[in-house]
Amino acid sequence: MSTNTRSRASTVLRSPVGDERTRFSSQAPQILACLDEDMNRLEVTRHARAIAKALDLQLGFAQIVETAPHGVLPADPIEWNLRFTECRDGIGELIGEASETVSDVLPVVLPGTAHERLIDWAEGHRGSVLVLARHSGRGPHSGLGTTADRLLTSGAASMLLLPSGRERKCSAEYRRLLVPLDGSPNSESVLPVVTRLAQSLEAQVILAHIVSPTAELPSLETQAGSDRSNTSARARNYLETWKLRLLRQGIDATVYFGTDSETCERLNLIASRLEIDLVVVASHGQTNLASAPYGSVAGALAKSAPCPTFIVQPDLRIPLAKPGRSGFMFEALAAETEFAS
């Protein structure tokens, strides 16, 4: 494809998108519902709307118009423009419903390959959340589909991943939140997000810590009585401490402690038995490998949790409780005096 042809294609494809983007600051974090022409479309819309309202973030609806490899346009430009218009009209219908509960909804039509364009969008809107189904309504219905897997692996944004509609219809009311903690500051950093969700939705929070039979809690090793025989008692005290801090925030909180070598399997079992509506987990825990986009627990829950899973990256930006303030997730943890005590 010649340089001139590429330039013309870029102009035709991106000028409508550019017009839409001017309505929002490129620095403003958003909730972006990633839509596809499948059975998950309405589910993604409902859950994105619920999270946007709870976290007080702007909401966008994105539709990908797939192009041929290397951005080659269809041979018929009229057909291409019709596809583009149909996408915008379809998003407009969804926005009409969403605007009843969330104001200022942005339509985004992104031409190209789905995961590439969504990663580009996320990098331009740091601290945002992508909402999508784990996989489409077509093909195998386990694990992650190609788009969800590549987005998760990129680490470009926090993600709310939904089971496919063929797996389970999930409520977007989020009455029960499961929050895995492992004793590390990384896992604890989701608590300001959990607090906002729980207070906004009047939800119950279940704090869970699953200890390997041979594990030690790193953040508690310097405390008195640190030999392995006291690990379970200290882990329970650790959970109770965070429970009390949530209770002081007016949040209904409880704890679950268990010993198991298969952390994710136990968490999935808890989610099923307690009818959890949403799992909220930090992208990284104890290991905190800078080279990895997510830890082993977050990755496993993304693929197999029986309910929606909110994987929170460190750069997630949410408005803080005090008027006129906003910040990154880790900054939020220190800023809330109740959690800093």
TrEMBL record:
Amino acid composition bias (Polar residues), ranges on this chain: 1-13
InterPro entries: Rossmann-like_a/b/a_fold, Universal_stress_UspA, UspA
Record protein name field: Universal stress protein family protein
Organism: Croceibacterium atlanticum
SUPFAM superfamilies the UniProt entry points to: Adenine nucleotide alpha hydrolases-like
Region (Disordered): 1-20
Family indicated by similarity: Belongs to the universal stress protein A family.
